[in-house]
Amino acid sequence: MSTTDYLCTYCRSHLLVGGNIIVGAKGPKGKMGIILLHPELGNYDIVTHPEFNIEEGESYSFYCPVCHSKLNDKEKDELAKLYMVENGDEYEFYFSRLAGEKASFKVKDKEVEEDAGFHKDRYARYFDLPKEYKKYL
Ligand SMILES: [Zn+2]
Fold first, then answer.
1. pTM of the full predicted structure?
2. Residue 137 Cα to ligand 1 middle (Å)
3. Dihedral (Cα; 49, 36, 120, 106), 10-degree rounding
4. Residues near 74 by beta carbon (within 8 Å), at least 6 away in sequence
5. pLDDT, mean of each 10-residue run, the chain (137 residues)
6. Residue 8 Cα, ligand 1 centroid: separation in angstroms?
7. 93 alpha carbon to ligand 1 midpoint, in Å?
8. How many domains does the chain have?
């Protein structure tokens, strides 16, 4: 039994309900709907209502379904951010806002603890270099 939880970064409501992370999303032309995200880092399966078609390559904004805050990260604009709590430790969890793009990051104290996805290198600039490189800077 996993003890992973996902929280809104504003109201800290629990967004992992019934086995999926539940977020609101707004896509091209303002089309809105609910997206269920898979809680496993690196699993990009999503569930939506059949009438809410996700358009590949389009940028979506994500919202907390409880307090309606925008979950897009303010500094890393192409990414959305949630808090992830795993066995009592809290992380920042980032994922790409582009539909179909596979990139996710689990970050603690600005260090990437875990990342996944074919497109993750596109966002490498947002995160600190691994510790072993820092001594050369
Ligand atoms: Zn919230």
1. 0.91
2. 38
3. 170
4. none
5. 88 97 96 97 96 95 98 95 96 97 94 94 81 53
6. 5
7. 15
8. 1
